[in-house]
Amino acid sequence: MLAFLLYAVPVLVIAVTLYIGFLGWKFYLDEIVRGGETQ
Amino acid sequence: MTILDWALLALYFVALVLIGIQTIKRIESSDDFAVAGNRIIWPVFFGSLAAAFLGGGASLGNAGASYSDGYVYMFAFFAFGLQTLLVGAFVAPRLKRYAGAHTVGDVMAEHYGPMARLLTGILSIALCAGILGAQALAIGTVVNATIDVPTVPAIVIGMAVVVTYSTFGGAWAVIQTDMLQFVILGVFLPLALIIGLFRAGGAGELVANAPDLHTSFLGDWTWAAFIGVFVAFLLGETLVPPYAQRTFSTPDSRHARLGFMLSGVFAFAFFFVAASLGLVALELFPGIEPDQALPTIVMELMPVGLVGLLVAALLAVVMSTASSYLNSIAVVFTKDIYQPFVNPQVGPRQRLWIERGLSLVVGVGATLFAVTVPSIVDALLYSYALWAPTVIIPLLGAVLFGIRSAPAALAAILVGGLVTALWTWGLDEPWEVTGLIAGVVCNLVVYTVVAIGRPGGSPVSPISAPTREEVF
Description:
The complex is a heterodimer of chains A (39) and B (472).
Chain A (H helix, E strand, L loop, with lengths): L1 H32 L6
Chain B lengths: L2 H21 L6 H6 L6 H12 L3 H13 L2 H24 L8 H9 L1 H33 L4 H49 L3 H7 L2 H4 L7 H13 L5 H8 L4 H32 L8 H9 L4 H37 L5 H25 L1 H8 L2 H18 L4 H21 L8 H19 L14 H4 L1
Helix pairs in contact in B: 1-8, 1-15, 3-8, 3-12, 3-13, 3-15, 4-5, 4-13, 5-11, 5-13, 6-7, 6-18, 7-8, 7-15, 7-16, 7-17, 7-18, 8-13, 8-15, 8-16, 13-14, 15-16, 16-17, 18-19, 18-20, 19-20
């Protein structure tokens, strides 16, 4: 079980981070680059 | 480090400064500087909060403790994730009821009056200054342990970048740079674990070779020691100023609840990754100093290119925390001390420039103290032990139950602080009971007794009734 978690948890953390990073990047474009004009 | 590693590390610093410069145009008022105009949606709140609370302790400290003691320290650290989940579920959504609030002091003033705001402001600034100084020192430690650059120039360069983007871009810059730092630390530290596992012969091999105590729940700790550390992590950083400020920056209670709770879930997984890196270091590099566990993995195991990015990840862990606390000092001083007690007539534009000036002055001061008189940082860090035994119970009483008894809050803050100081530094924590636990218990007892005896107004205000949206 621990051996499985040692692979599964870091993969999950990377996947979640990339997804949240993608949403954050869209927010950055909307709010900072375009100055929040789409809101 | 190769040229590629140096280039990637330099790129990280350039990106931070560019984000800081780009966010300047979003800063038009003190609301923008303190809470990013209340526009931070849940994914950004989640990433920013996680980057703020995942500091040197959660990564370098956790890996080092796992190297020496095993997973027991991680299990104690889980208390922080549990606290974040609980605050996210029950407290964070209700903080959004306080329209225009920027600080914990705003909430305390609403329920307990100006003196509670002043005490909370002083405690907030002392706590933030201590942690800011500690992060400045940690920049030097990380750089010295990895790329062998002398400590002083490393601290000066790292803090110069932090101070620059925090001063110009305020909360917008801090939160947006947090997101970059969140991605770097959330991708490259887990990647380092996966690479480390392969170098150790696979996860099965690592588990088989690890000492039994290192993979057991309690290791060689006593239950008393475990409970003491667990409670410290459970209460120690509850709603410290940067976390409360982030919560106020969300548009509504749904975003506050979702972002806060998800960052708590993420914390469990991150702590596991950091602790497992400690076990990998124990397997591959026995006999090193425990606090060198993570830097050694980075420098000895990572391929060209990844070394630079992982050094950036370790710096991201520290710098995101530093900028959060720096921004909070400026906002707390202006909102909880300067405006109510020194210059109530201060206009919004003037307030913004005071906050910017304070960010610059405090950031430069923290850097100077860190490189010249680090003992001052140590002294300020004592205030870390005082946050939970003073502010948390009255704050929870206000937010969860709408209690408005000023005598109860003031008495609890004073008694909690005095008992913690006496127990910790006067009695040297007898019976393995930490000063934090003794202080919180006394704080709770005094607050409850005085609130019942001298409500000082409506003990339960209409604000205490949660809406369905806030709870679910």
